[in-house]
Amino acid sequence: MKHRLAFFRFACVLLLLSVTAMAEDPLPSWNDGAAKQAILNFVRTTTDPSHPNFVPAEQRIATFDQDGTTWVEHPIFPEDIFAFDRIVAVAPQHPEWKTTRPFATILSGDKEAMTKLGAEDLENILLATHSGMAVEEFHTMASDWIATAKHPRWQRPYTELVYQPMLEVMRYLRANGYKTYMVTGGDQEFVRSYAEKVYGIPPEQVIGSTVAIQFTYNKDGQGILTRPPKMLLNDKFSGKAEDIYLFTGRHSKAAFGNSTGDQQMLEYTQAGGGASLMMLVLHDDAEREYAYGPAQGLPDTKFGTFTQALYDEARAKGWTVISMKKDWRHIFSFQE
Amino acid sequence: MKHRLAFFRFACVLLLLSVTAMAEDPLPSWNDGAAKQAILNFVRTTTDPSHPNFVPAEQRIATFDQDGTTWVEHPIFPEDIFAFDRIVAVAPQHPEWKTTRPFATILSGDKEAMTKLGAEDLENILLATHSGMAVEEFHTMASDWIATAKHPRWQRPYTELVYQPMLEVMRYLRANGYKTYMVTGGDQEFVRSYAEKVYGIPPEQVIGSTVAIQFTYNKDGQGILTRPPKMLLNDKFSGKAEDIYLFTGRHSKAAFGNSTGDQQMLEYTQAGGGASLMMLVLHDDAEREYAYGPAQGLPDTKFGTFTQALYDEARAKGWTVISMKKDWRHIFSFQE
């Protein structure tokens, strides 16, 4: 009896310790390993005033790519689906589209053909659907769509297909004084329409590709802002590094990506000197999400991919590759 | 004796009341009047959750033009003087400038001729001096210059020629949850080099004209950002309204300007709906600062001016015109 009581006490202490440890783990969806340790170590050392890696509060900037880094981009970028849906919605006003490439492909409903559209076709589709209206009008189109559209595989809203481990990293960074920025090849206004709700990132911390914004007067003489069909910023590849500086005048200290489209953002983060954290998400989990990229013998994504050269660069420069399969205990919140 | 004591007590109470009132006045450099009341009223009502003008914390955005609104722009914009000084500094590497317009005008040292340079000449001078280097290099050039250059009239650094009443407005707005942005026709990086120190405005809240920013690799293969000779953003006139939205995805709630270069920023602030504050600084104090613009029968500033049409628009739309002469008790901190 005495032994049993001692054992019970011992078990209670163990349970208490483990519950405390769980409560204190800022990254519960991450398995222990090099990736999780890299994040914990970066935050611990850069917020410790006595550590050589210390980063003053005002310089704590963390930047995240979106597609494939914080939410599902496969098999088609969610924003491309939004554009395809818009084409269908406004097609009655454009009878010529029935026989015009690339619009005819969208209107045919041939999903296989849609995944094979080239970069130029997609750009034309994006321009046609993302311009020609007031900024508020486009914002509403985007937020209406995101509230109802569903991913074909999970039949859930795209906003539920954000990666729980990355949400934890964002919260953990913010709790330690980092400003989190979304730096996306997608349209800035599209992402701003849900980024605060989904990622806790306010509109002024969303940097993205965009058409120009043009001030003009409406028929009542009131000032309005419209979206002319002319690209202004392209936040892929070099554009990410350039526009982080354009918007903030600062270096990113931590950068998260998943493809060559994020390469320069990570390179420039590292080039800033002092402490830095560069991470790349590797899609190697066909069961819970997807496995793609040349390493997996599957087709590339449209605007950049996780090439062998990028993988080699990451290894050579001390960047951290996140294996979705090994490093992430959960991928989506609904799997918890 | 008894009466004297009573009088002394009464005087003490008066003194105490007036000291308390002074301590509580967030705008001590402002004389009482419509302009000061407009600011106090705007802040009081937009931060009162029970008032119909209430503005939620995340939407509290205030935008300030710089030249002529928060510091002296007369007789030549400080940044133009910086550009002229740069021309002189690098002239030995450009012998052809001695005979090339507009560079020859600068190298001649003829101050009168410099004030008469046209917009196109100035643009060429700005492009020649503001591009062709790494972003950090330009930043250092600007901060080195601003630390040593002096205004010809007061023989003081330009950063001492900021308007004390406007600094008080910025502090007062920030103390009430407003994010203050500088939205300047001047170069964004130039202004970022001193905005935090001078205005308490961090680099990410400085929106300004800028050449493009270009990512490239240096000879060691490291990523760097350079400034090619190509304009990307022009934050005068419509550009102010457009780029506030580009950078923040939000409407400005309070906007401060002094010329037609700020007109659209004020118009779009008012068009946002709900509470808004639009203010224009009128330079009507030749003794303590300057009096200029057509109303004063003096030459226009280069990139916009306080025209009669703007004055009429302000009156018609309920904007507040700040008279430097009547509304400001002090203009510069060194006059206190």
Helix/strand class of chain A: alpha/beta
The largest sheet of chain A is: 7 strands, mixed
Gyration radius from CA atoms of chain A, angstroms: 22 Å
The largest beta-sheet of chain A arranges its strands as 6-3-2-1-7-8-9
- Overall number of strands of chain A: 9
Oligomeric state of shown chains: homodimer
Helical fraction of chain A equals 40-55%
So how many helices of chain A? Answer: 14
Question: Overall mean pLDDT score of chain A?
Answer: 91
Task: Tell me what portion of residues of chain A adopts beta-strand conformation.
Answer: 5-15%
Which chains have the largest interface? Answer: A-B, 34 and 34 residues
Query: Could you state the order of secondary-structure elements of chain A as H and E?
Result: HHEHHHHHHEHHEEEEHEHEHEH
Stretches with pLDDT under 50, minimum 5 residues of chain A: none
Cα shape of chain A: globular
Protein described:
The structure is a homodimer of 336-residue chains. Chain A contains 14 helices and nine strands. Chain A is α/β, with parallel strands linked by helices and 336 residues long. In chain A, strand 4 and strand 5 form a beta hairpin. In chain A, helix 3 (78-90) crosses helix 6. In chain A, strands 6-3-2-1-7-8-9 form a seven-stranded mixed β-sheet, sandwiched between helices. The first copy, chain A, is globular, with a radius of gyration of 22 Å. The longest helix of chain A has 23 residues, at 2-24. Chain A has helices at residues 2-24, 34-46, 78-90, 103-108, 111-115, 119-130, 135-148, 164-175, 188-192, 195-199, 238-248, 263-271, 308-317, 324-327, and strands at residues 61-64, 179-187, 206-211, 214-217, 223-226, 231-233, 254-257, 277-282, 320-323. Chain A binds chain B through residues 58, 135, 188-189, 192, 202-204, 206, 210, 212-215, 222-225, 232, 238, 241-243, 245-250, 264, 267-268, 270-271, and chain B through 58, 135, 188-189, 192, 202-204, 206, 210, 212-215, 222-225, 232, 238, 241-243, 245-250, 264, 267-268, 270-271.
